[in-house]
Structure formats: C-alpha cells, structure tokens
Design brief:
The chain is of the alpha/beta class. The chain folds into two domains: 254 residues, Alpha/Beta hydrolase fold, catalytic domain (Rossmann fold); 208 residues, no CATH class. Helix content is 43%, strand content 14%. The chain contains 18 helices and twelve strands. A ten-stranded mixed beta sheet has the order 1-2-3-5-4-6-7-10-11-12, with helices on both faces. Helix 7 packs across helix 8, helix 9 packs antiparallel against helix 16 and helix 15 packs antiparallel against helix 16. It is globular. GO terms for molecular function: hydrolase activity.
Length: 497
C-alpha cells in the first residue's frame, strides 16, 4: 500500500460505467471455457530482468468471450541442483510493477533459497507491461500530485473534487477496455492461472504491503493451494478506505516523531534541537508552501503537496532519513530541491512531466474499484478536521483524508464489502509486522494474524515500511528458514533493531 498521491475534456461511454460485482470462482461451464487458459505453459526468453514470458488471462472471468489480456512475467532461475519450486513475489502498491522485483528478491533471499527456488515476478493486470491502465496523462499526473491536498476554502475544495472526479473518467476515456477489470479479485484469479502455468501444485508467495492484500485474497479463494506464504507489511482486510487512511495518518505522525528523535540522538541535529522544534519548523515550512511554492533546481516549484510527498517517501525507509534531514535543511532556507527529489522518488516521477511507469493511474484504478465509495467533499472535510485535531503535523492527517477524493466518484466498485479474512487453509502462514511501520501499521498485522488461525506473527521492533530485506538479520533468517524448510517462527517471535 502506498500513500495516496494526489484531470479534461472526457467523452465517457455510459455503457462502461457499470456496477461491477465481485469476481467469484467460475461455474462448471465457465471452468470448461477456462481450460485453454489453465493448460498454458510459459515460454521463457532472455530479457533484461533475467527471463520473461507472457501469461494469457481472460479480460473478464465472468465472460471469457470478451477476449484475453497478457500478463508480463519474469523469472530468476534457481542456481543449484535441487529445485523446490517457484516463489512468486509482489512489491505492493497497488500499481507497482513487479518484473524487476524478482531480481531484487533473488538478491535478498539467502543463497540457499536462491539455489532451490525460481523467483517469479509479474506486473499485475493494468500495471506496467500487463495491459497498463491510463487514467491521467503524464502532464495531468504531475498536476494532480502538485495540487493542494489540504484545501481550505470552498473554491479549493471544488477544484480538488473536480480534478479527483476526472481521474476515474480518464480511465474510461484512455483505456476503456481494461479499466473496469483491474480489481484485486480478477488479479487473484490471474495468480491462480500463473500457478498452473508454472506447473506448481502449490503457490509459494512473498508479498509486501498491498501484496499482502492480494495474498490474502488468494488464501480466501484457493485455500487448498497454499504453499509457503509470507505476508510482510500486512493490510487488515476488514477496514474500508477511510479507516485505512486514518491508520496511515497516525502511522506517519509517529514515524516522523521517531525520525526527529533519531536525528537528535545523533547530535548535532542540523534541523532542530528537539522533536518539538523540528515539528514546529516543519509545520511552518508546510504553511508557507501552502501559499508560496518554493524554487527547485528543476524548474518545478515545490508545492505543499509535493513537500509532504517528499516527507512521506522518506519515512518509508530509515535508509532515506539522512536524505530527509538534508532536504528539510535545504527547505528551511528556501530550496525545495531535496524534498522534490524525494517526492519524485515516491511517485516514480523522472522529470517535470515524465514517469517511469503508470503507477499513479494504476493505483487509483485498482484501489478505488476494490473499496466502497469514499465520502464526498463534506465527509472528507469532517474527517480532515477530526483527524488533525491532536496531530503533531496537522497537514499530514488532513491530506490523508482528502487523498480519498478520487474514489468518492469512481465508476464501479467491488460488491464485496471489507470484512475480516476467512480461509480454510491448513497451511502455516508467516505474517510480518513492523512496530512503527507508517504505511501498514502494526495493529493491521496483529488483526490479520487473529483472522487467519494458521498464521504466525513475526514482529520487527523497528521503523520503516516492511521488514524483510531491510537490514534485520533476525527477520531475514526467520523468513529464509521458513521458505527453505517450512519452519514457522516461534509464536510471539520478536526481532530487535
């Protein structure tokens, strides 16, 4: 799960504005129609991420006559003589491309795991090279990310809501065929076809952040096909979009205070002498940016929204905290370059109007479909006011509420409402929760652990978003042992920083 980033003339075909229902397992007649898809085998060829292949899946599982789409898949082959199977990996999002992620995971797992498992990456439907959805042009995306994410006046609120509504309309204008079919239930059934195409009897899964939502959905739909399953940075499926945003608002507030404390502990801290002074200076900076965007070295002005985007990005990883110190130090003297660079890093932006992927469009296309409609302007304003009352940095909490604006007018939604996970699987599952994770708060991992009786919660007592591969030998060893041997961590196992 990522922080919701923050379109014109749109001719929308009304027939496409459907109320799409949840995808369910196919009926016997549909299953017969799916046989061609179920009997695929992947044809691997060399590519820049290792080996690549294409998986064919139905556009619409409830009506396979509508044709198919292609899912881009990557593989890093096992290096040893023993082959345990394929480990399918997902970096999160929703909307994050996953082809390159296979190479990253192959480096992060232990050599023993890399010897015995093929690491499989893929771009989910609507993402990257898998029939990418487009809801905004690059220029529109840059404009949306820079737009005021904490509107203060009726005029500002109207502007934000109009731009937000244009995102969903843009999906249907630019990519009308794929846009109504990119929700998580469809992606879950794609995952089952991928398992079959790989020739695996069970699915081995390593999912991060939103990847835990996709993994949980698979646990529910295909409980008998579960192999080694790791869910790192768990999302609680019982929460709606506003509840998730409130949890993130609290998480980022706490993460910023931890960041400030770490700076002070490594005295001298260049951006303040106490958490209170650092927080005060940041509030003053954000207040100034609200009305006076700041110069940068890129010719793009740093707005308040982009400034907060830089802060959010850096709080995802403690490795970025030194960069945030430098960026704030620059910002306090009128140079927004560092914060803009961090913001661009988080949104996969490569220049003033260029992006490395369709991540921003895909995020909304998937997330807004998956969830019930968000409140309208009045409800978002009430939540923004309530959430920011006791917040150390009020603008962070206010922006978290308004980030739900695009989903308040989305053209279709999953008919399945948020609910606790329910799976009949007997397989042991590993859930990883980071104590001070800002984007997927620890309480979500605890909740998912309670909902899945065969799961074990592994805790990292640190900061940052997700834990495996983030520098904790304790976490990495526990996960590698589980992947290699199926050995679950001890109940209540906790890993120190």
């Amino acid at each position: 799960m990522t922080y919701r980033g923050h379109v014109k003339k749109l001719a929308v075909v009304s027939a496409l504005a459907l109320v799409v229902t949840a995808i369910v397992l196919p009926s016997p007649s549909q299953a017969t129609e799916l046989d061609t898809y179920r009997n695929q085998r992947l044809n691997w060829t060399r590519c820049d991420v290792g080996e690549c292949a294409t998986l064919q899946v139905p556009l619409d599982y409830s009506n396979v006559n509508l044709g198919n789409i292609s899912i881009a898949v990557s593989r890093v082959q096992h290096t040893g003589p023993v082959f345990q199977g394929s480990l399918v990996v997902n970096p999160g999002g929703p909307g994050s491309p996953g082809l390159d992620f296979a190479k990253y995971v192959a480096r992060e797992v232990s050599p023993a795991v890399a010897k015995e498992f093929d690491i499989i990456g893929f771009d989910p439907r609507g993402v990257g090279k898998s029939q990418p959805v487009m809801c905004m042009t690059n220029k529109q995306t840059a404009s949306w990310l820079a737009m005021d994410s904490t509107p203060d006046s009726p005029a500002e609120i109207a502007s934000v809501m109009a731009a937000a509504a244009a995102i969903g309309k843009g999906c249907l204008q630019y990519t009308p065929r794929i846009s109504p079919h990119v929700g998580t239930p469809s992606a879950t059934q794609d995952l089952e076809l991928l398992r079959l195409a790989l020739g695996e009897t069970k699915l081995n899964w390593l999912g991060f952040s939103y990847g835990t939502s996709l993994g949980t959905s698979y646990l529910e739909l295909f409980p008998e096909n579960i192999g080694r399953f790791v869910l790192d940075g768990a999302v609680d499926p019982s929460l709606n979009s506003m509840q998730l945003s409130l949890g993130q608002a609290k998480g980022f507030q706490k993460a910023f205070q931890n960041f400030a404390q770490k700076c002070i502990d490594r005295s001298p801290c260049r951006i303040g002498s106490s958490r209170a002074s650092i927080t005060s200076r940041v509030n003053a900076l954000l207040a100034k940016l609200d009305t006076h965007p700041m110069r940068t070295n890129y010719g793009t002005k740093l707005t308040q929204s982009l400034g907060m985007g830089g802060i959010f990005t850096a709080l995802y990883s403690t490795d970025l905290w030194p960069l945030l110190i430098d960026a704030l130090d620059q910002g306090f003297i009128g140079d927004g370059t560092g914060l803009l660079e961090l913001s661009w890093m988080g949104s996969d932006q490569t220049g003033p109007d260029t992006f490395g992927s369709n991540m921003q469009s895909a995020y909304y296309a998937i997330d807004c479909w998956d969830m019930p409609a968000s409140p309208g302007a009045a409800g978002l304003a009430v939540a923004a006011k309530q959430w920011s009352k006791s917040a150390k940095i009020p603008e962070i909490s206010r922006s978290m509420s308004w980030s739900n604006a695009p989903c308040s007018t989305w053209f279709a939604h999953n008919s399945k409402l948020p609910a606790p996970a329910s799976s009949s699987t007997k397989a042991g599952i590993v859930i990883i929760g980071t104590r001070f994770d800002p984007a997927t708060p620890y309480v979500w991992a605890q909740a998912l652990n309670r909902q899945l009786p065969t799961s074990t919660l592994l805790t990292y007592e640190g900061n940052g978003h997700t834990a495996f591969g983030a520098g904790s030998r304790c976490i990495d060893t526990a996960v590698n042992d589980y992947l290699l041997r199926g050995t679950l961590p001890a109940a209540g196992k906790s890993c120190p920083v």
